[in-house]
């Protein structure tokens, strides 16, 4: 197997390209056309993760965000925000049947934030993933959604429009420690799966092309919980937009843009709060950072 080609992401080019992908706001569109995102996750222990993913998908510009969670979590998630639509379904015996009619109305599904590791819930989540893949729904798989892939790796092999967002530990658990073995395993994925490995420098693997696109350092040294959820949520909306554009490599564009964006959010909040910064502070930075980085000026 030949060496993996490392490609440093050229930021000015990326930003210029991504600006063309961001849809122009217009009065001719109806509600939902800028994106309808679904988040599968949320348990008794973890209610923040699905909230952060869903709210960031909205704050970057999606029109609607649905959270499909365990019934133990739904009232709590609703209480965080009236902007989210929350379905207490994951612990129902007929969870998949309940979610199926919603799927066709959603553009991208994020599987994993706050899902937890209860075997029954993981089984349900893997059935939902199967269904998404069957109907060719674009998916972002994060956190405990990646955990369920450890025993179900075949599910995503050869599929299209799948983005995985592991942190370093999740990456190792999924692909192993040894780079050649990892590449071997990655090569089974085919040309429709992209991996965004989160770290000090985020790395975006395109297994089929044997390429890894590396993002520059960014953000601060402050790594509080919830930042990965801001990434998966904004990535979902960006992924939908990139798929709508006619650009080749929509997953790569969306992954690079969301990686860059979350580091910028972190830095902006860090400048105000230093060590005290929390994921909810980063949410507050979304409007200004999005405007500054991704909105076209009137003359463009
Ligand atoms: C969580 O949900 C289960 C049903 O799936 C229920 O039996 C249990 O009482 C709930 N726990 C809490 C703390 O709400």
From TrEMBL:
InterPro entries: Carbohydrate_kinase_pred_CS, CARKD, Ribokinase-like. It holds the Pfam family Carb_kinase. GO terms for molecular function: ATP binding; ATP-dependent NAD(P)H-hydrate dehydratase activity. Belongs to the NnrD/CARKD family. SUPFAM superfamilies: Ribokinase-like. The gene is Naxd. The keyword NADP applies. GO terms for biological process: metabolite repair; nicotinamide nucleotide metabolic process. CDD domains: YXKO-related. This is ATP-dependent (S)-NAD(P)H-hydrate dehydratase. Its cofactor is Mg(2+). Residues 14-293 form the YjeF C-terminal domain. ATP binds at residues 198-202, 219-228. It catalyses: (6S)-NADHX + ATP = ADP + phosphate + NADH + H(+); (6S)-NADPHX + ATP = ADP + phosphate + NADPH + H(+). Catalyzes the dehydration of the S-form of NAD(P)HX at the expense of ATP, which is converted to ADP. Together with NAD(P)HX epimerase, which catalyzes the epimerization of the S- and R-forms, the enzyme allows the repair of both epimers of NAD(P)HX, a damaged form of NAD(P)H that is a result of enzymatic or heat-dependent hydration. Its EC number is 4.2.1.93.
């Amino acid at each position: 197997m030949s060496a993996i080609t490392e490609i440093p992401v050229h930021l000015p080019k990326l930003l210029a390209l991504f600006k063309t992908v961001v849809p122009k706001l217009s009065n001719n569109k109806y509600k939902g056309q800028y994106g309808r995102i679904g988040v599968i996750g949320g348990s008794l222990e973890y209610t923040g993760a699905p909230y952060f993913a869903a709210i960031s998908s909205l704050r970057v510009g999606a029109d609607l965000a649905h959270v499909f969670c365990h019934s133990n979590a739904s009232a709590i998630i609703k209480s965080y925000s009236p902007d989210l639509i929350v379905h207490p379904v994951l612990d129902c015996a007929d969870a998949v049947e309940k979610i199926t009619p919603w799927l066709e109305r959603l553009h991208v599904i994020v599987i994993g934030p706050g899902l937890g590791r209860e075997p029954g819930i993981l089984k349900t989540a893997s059935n939902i993933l199967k269904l998404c893949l069957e109907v060719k729904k674009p998916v972002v798989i994060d956190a405990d959604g990646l955990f369920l892939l450890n025993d179900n790796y075949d599910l995503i092999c050869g599929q299209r429009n799948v983005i995985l967002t592991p942190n370093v530990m999740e990456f190792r658990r999924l692909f192993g420690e040894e780079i050649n073995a990892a590449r071997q395993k990655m090569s089974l994925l085919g040309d429709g799966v992209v991996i965004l490995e989160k770290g000090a420098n985020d790395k975006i693997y395109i297994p089929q092309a044997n390429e890894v696109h590396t993002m520059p350092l960014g953000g601060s040294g402050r790594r509080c919980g919830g930042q990965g959820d801001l990434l998966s949520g904004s990535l979902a909306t960006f992924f939908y937009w990139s798929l709508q554009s006619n650009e080749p490599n929509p997953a790569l564009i969306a992954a690079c843009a969301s990686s860059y964006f979350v580091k910028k959010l972190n830095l902006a909040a860090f400048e105000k709060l230093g060590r005290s910064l929390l994921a909810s502070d980063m949410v507050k930075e979304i409007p200004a950072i999005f405007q500054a980085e991704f909105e076209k000026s009137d003359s463009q």
